[in-house]
Task: inverse folding
């Protein structure tokens, strides 16, 4: 019942919406840990402090008056694919749909940190949201950190708009962090403070997102998005099973593929559950951190098919089911689309 409650609050991308280069606002996936905060934009301020020479306190208008950038970035929840693990880790029961791609507009983080003057002893930068709650008995504000090597990237953005409109409440209004290539837990929403610290941050959410085999395992931090390809389900669906139906003839199978480690360079498609593979066409990406469209021509004949796709990126990482872990994280398990081709 707890997981059903989570599933009513959080939603995934309807897979047919993979057809959009830019995910419409209402279709982008959502994972909200606590409540959506009620924020008064007039009184809201962003505090930048800690181990800096010149602490800053900025209003939303201050941030909007600074140089702006817009980037198309694919976000994916670190728990995407969790429900496909066995035994299934208990949490938000994602299958494959916790993903979306939007056009984020804001001001780059790096110039703000340079203006504040990060001190030499700095190690991490902690981003804290307004959202407040309890997780596994610990009362907390949602907070995550990034190492200095990441926060000084030119493409890390403090976003105040998505798809050319002000952030919607559920997407982090009035301000959120966008860290291209990283899983969604790093893109802190409802941002209220940025603190430079002289030690490695070990807050609850930082320690929660780790790959562990058991409770005593120190684990490995969850960071960048593993390569994944998804199929836009062809034809029309069965209501309950989401199995697909097609009539014989020429069909274009297509979908999206992405990775946080490097550009996707290859997508392979199987029609027989992995017995054989065909190489799809991977179309040019308009943006460095946006998903890429892929397509494959198929002459469909009567019969049953099991359609899947897998991605390989420029670093040589190829999509593969993750080893089981307690959090159910970073599991780019392949999607299996059952297709029945029948005569009219």
Result:
């Amino acid at each position: 019942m707890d997981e059903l409650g989570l599933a009513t609050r959080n939603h995934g991308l309807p897979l047919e919406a993979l057809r959009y280069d830019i995910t419409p606002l209402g279709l982008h996936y959502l994972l909200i840990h606590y409540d959506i905060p009620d924020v008064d934009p007039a009184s809201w301020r962003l505090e930048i402090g800690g181990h800096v020479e010149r602490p800053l306190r900025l209003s939303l208008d201050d941030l909007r008056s600074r140089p702006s950038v817009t980037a198309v970035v694919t976000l994916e929840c670190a728990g995407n694919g969790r429900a496909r693990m066995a035994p299934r880790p208990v949490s938000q029961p994602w299958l494959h749909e916790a993903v979306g791609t939007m056009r984020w507009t804001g001001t780059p983080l790096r110039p703000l940190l340079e203006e504040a003057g990060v001190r030499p002893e700095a190690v991490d930068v902690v981003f804290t949201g307004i959202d407040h709650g309890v997780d596994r008995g610990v009362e907390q504000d949602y907070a995550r950190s990034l190492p200095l090597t990441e926060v000084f990237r030119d493409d890390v953005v403090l976003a105040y708009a998505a798809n050319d409109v002000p952030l919607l409440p559920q997407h982090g209004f009035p301000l959120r962090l966008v860290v291209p290539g990283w899983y969604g837990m790093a893109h802190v929403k409802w941002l209220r403070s940025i603190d430079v610290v002289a030690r490695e941050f070990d807050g609850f959410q930082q320690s929660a997102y780790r790959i562990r085999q058991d409770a005593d395992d120190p684990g490995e931090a969850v960071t960048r998005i593993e390569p994944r390809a998804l199929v836009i389900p062809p034809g029309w669906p069965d209501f309950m099973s989401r199995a697909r139906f097609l009539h014989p003839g020429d069909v274009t199978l297509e979908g999206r593929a992405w990775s946080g480690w490097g550009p996707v360079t290859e997508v392979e498609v199987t029609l027989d559950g992995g017995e054989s593979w065909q190489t799809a066409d991977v179309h040019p990406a308009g943006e460095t951190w946006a998903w890429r469209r892929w397509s494959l021509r198929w002459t469909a004949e009567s019969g049953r098919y099991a359609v899947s796709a897998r991605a390989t990126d420029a670093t040589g990482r190829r999509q593969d089911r993750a080893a089981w872990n307690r959090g159910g994280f970073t599991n780019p398990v392949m999607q299996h689309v059952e297709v029945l081709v029948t005569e009219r």
Observations:
- The radius of gyration is 21 Å.
- The longest strand covers residues 124-135.
- The helical segments are 2-9, 60-64, 109-116, 148-151, 204-208.
